[in-house]
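Workshop exercise sheet. Pairs work together: one partner reads the sequence aloud, the other fills in the structure field after running the prediction. Swap roles for the next sheet.
Pair: D.N. / O.F.
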Amino acid sequence: SQVFALQAVGGDLYLGTGTTGEVWRFRGGKATKLATLKGAVIVTCFAAGPAGTLYAGTLPEGRIYKLDTRTGKATLHAKVDAEHVWDLDYDKRARTLYAATGPKGKLFAINAAGKPRVYWSSGETHVLSLARGPGGALYAGTAPKAIVYRLLGQGRARALHDFAGNEIRALAGNAKALYVAVNEIKLDRSSALRVMPKAAAKGTPLPKGARPKRALKIPRL
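Structure field:
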């Protein structure tokens, strides 16, 4: 198995793996399998929810699971109109889970009952990454144009920066800054984004001498 996602909850570390869609818990120096998510090949992302709940995004077929970290019980929370769930963000105040997806480049908002709606359509192939940043706003990174957006509300977003790479692989933020991981990858059959079209040559060039990391390789689906 390979580890594709990590999430700390209450002093424990949760690991999402492929190729059998398993969730493992690392506690006290020991890893224990907590759940196998039915129908999942890879657990791609996590988001910590209320009362010990852990949400897990998977591929293929756009499934999002709800895991009770106290009992290890996993249930299907939502199924979105997408093949890949790339990242998740949970808004405690709104009790809403946001899911970044591909290959239609949509961001979904999912209510407490597990009902999804399209919150924003990026016009790109993938919304790859999500994070909270300055102002408490939700930020999203895309592929293949490698643009960082700030979400302004239902169906509304502002482009903040266009990078020269072809994916915003990860975002991390706090009240003062937003940190961006940008890749410029050459696609092959085992690339995580092998369905991604070639990006246009535009945006802010990566620094000279920088070595962009390649996307994690996964088995062909």
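Discussion prompt: The longest strand covers residues 2-9. What would you look at next?
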